[in-house]
């Protein structure tokens, strides 16, 4: 878009989660024109190392030839096909491959419902939980429990169970009532922890018992959490937290949903974070890395008995006996399915999960080596190929220091992401030692000038 100097051409696009007036007054710094592998390129020739995998999604690097070739081939074969009472082979193949390639053999997660994004995956998961309880004759189970600082997309369901105030405050009149567990970020006790904070997890999880006492378990449908809260700034669960949540949900017959839009598809070196933490939820939502960000796609994985209960609820087996009145025009879109199958092929053929396990200690050591680069660093935390740096806030100007840091990183050829007063990072899963070193070197240089 060489014409960005013509400001009129910038006006029509209302950009999401963006300070539109600022961007349109300063477009050149932020305008990306192409990408390849670990890098973005700008129209004025700058090369930017991508430490965020796009928006947590381009996990195999940008424009991977196997994925782009699969999309092009599919577009020339079957560009679109409905999946409402129709089908096409790649949707069935991709669903089967997700279960086979990403889920442990012992798992009870057996079925996949396709959506068009992470947000729609979350809303679909909430509806599936309600449909399951309704089919069981427990329609009174209608309440949901989320968590403070949780991000579950931007649908009304997602923001209702989500716990980020700025995402909610303009829309509260249309949200449904939901309760929220306390978040697990405790910088005062756990600053500069490597991996999972060592204590306090079980006690935090037991706050769910208070909500069960308040509402009665018979009225609660499900609990939804991110195994690692990504968008709020890489908030890592303390030891015992997720296991205790699972125990409480099992004891009281509550469904447990893991929102793995960020932690799924290899981010922690396993198919899903559930395997990494050795906790099996009843439902998993995923998106982003599922198709390497190349074509929008989301998915909901459910236990076999949930699927069986809902699909047997209509009382018939004919063409008109629809069991779940829910879905999207783009559920199982052929191009997304092709991109997803190619993504799974690359994960296997290039042994990407092994690379994540191998490179994660380098990432951890590099991040924590930055601790003394600036007295304004309040915390550094990491898990898998995720990491965050939290700064001391400027009085009465929350987030400004982080935004300035992000801009300075960009000027120095590094893309990072702002979350409040934190910088969140998620390098592509294909990163090597040299590229991790480059990220750390730029971070160090910019941190040394932090004001």
Please explain how this structure is put together.
This protein is α/β, with parallel strands linked by helices and 451 residues long. It is 37% helix and 16% strand. A seven-stranded mixed β-sheet has the order 4-10-9-8-7-5-6, with helices on both faces. A four-stranded mixed β-sheet has the order 1-2-3-13. Strand 7, helix 12 (241-251) and strand 8 (255-259) form a beta-alpha-beta unit. The chain is globular, with a radius of gyration of 22 Å.
> What is the CATH superfamily of the largest domain?
Type I PLP-dependent aspartate aminotransferase-like (Major domain)
Instruction: Point out poorly predicted stretches.
Output: none
Count helical runs.
18
Mean pLDDT: 95
CATH class of the largest domain: Alpha Beta
Helical coverage, percent range: 25-40%
């Amino acid at each position: 878009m060489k014409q960005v100097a013509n400001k009129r051409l910038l006006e029509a696009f209302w950009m999401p989660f963006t300070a539109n007036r600022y961007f349109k007054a300063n477009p050149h710094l932020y305008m990306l024109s192409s990408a390849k592998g670990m890098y973005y390129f700008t129209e004025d020739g700058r090369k930017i190392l991508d430490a965020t995998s796009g928006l947590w999604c381009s996990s195999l690097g940008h424009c991977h030839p196997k994925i782009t070739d699969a999309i092009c081939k599919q577009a020339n074969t079957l560009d679109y096909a409905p999946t409402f009472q129709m089908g096409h082979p790649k949707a069935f193949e991709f669903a089967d491959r997700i279960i086979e390639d990403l889920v442990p053999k012992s798992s009870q997660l057996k079925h996949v419902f396709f959506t068009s994004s992470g947000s729609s995956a979350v809303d679909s998961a909430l509806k599936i939980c309600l449909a399951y309880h309704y089919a069981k004759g427990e329609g009174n189970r209608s309440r949901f429990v989320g968590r403070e600082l949780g991000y579950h997309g931007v649908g009304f369901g997602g923001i209702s169970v989500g716990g980020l105030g700025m995402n909610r405050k303009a829309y509260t009149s249309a949200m449904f009532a939901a309760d929220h567990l306390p978040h697990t970020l405790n910088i005062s006790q756990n600053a500069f922890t490597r991996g999972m904070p060592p204590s306090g997890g079980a006690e935090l999880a037991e706050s769910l018992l208070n909500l069960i006492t308040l509402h009665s378990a018979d009225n609660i449908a499900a609990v939804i959490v991110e195994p690692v809260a990504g968008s709020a700034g890489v908030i890592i669960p303390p030891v015992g937290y997720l296991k205790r949540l699972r125990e409480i949900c099992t004891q009281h017959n509550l469904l447990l949903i893991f929102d793995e839009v960020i932690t799924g598809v290899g981010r922690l070196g396993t198919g899903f974070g559930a395997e990494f933490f050795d906790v099996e939820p009843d439902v998993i939502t995923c998106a982003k890395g599922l198709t390497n960000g190349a074509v929008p796609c989301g998915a909901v994985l459910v236990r076999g008995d949930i699927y069986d209960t809902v699909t047997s609820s209509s009382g018939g087996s004919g063409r008109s006996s629809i069991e779940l009145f829910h879905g999207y025009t783009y559920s199982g879109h052929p191009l997304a399915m092709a991109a997803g199958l190619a993504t799974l092929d690359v994960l296997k053929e290039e042994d990407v999960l092994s690379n994540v396990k191998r490179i994660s200690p380098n990432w951890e050591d590099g991040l924590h080596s930055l601790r003394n680069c600036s007295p304004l660093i309040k915390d550094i935390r990491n898990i898998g190929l995720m990491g965050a740096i939290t700064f001391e806030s400027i009085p009465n100007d929350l987030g400004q220091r982080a935004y300035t840091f992000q801009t300075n990183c960009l000027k120095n050829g590094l893309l990072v992401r702002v979350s409040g007063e934190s910088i969140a990072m998620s390098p592509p899963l294909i990163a090597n030692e040299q590229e991790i070193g480059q990220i750390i070197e730029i971070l160090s240089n910019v941190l040394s000038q932090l004001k």
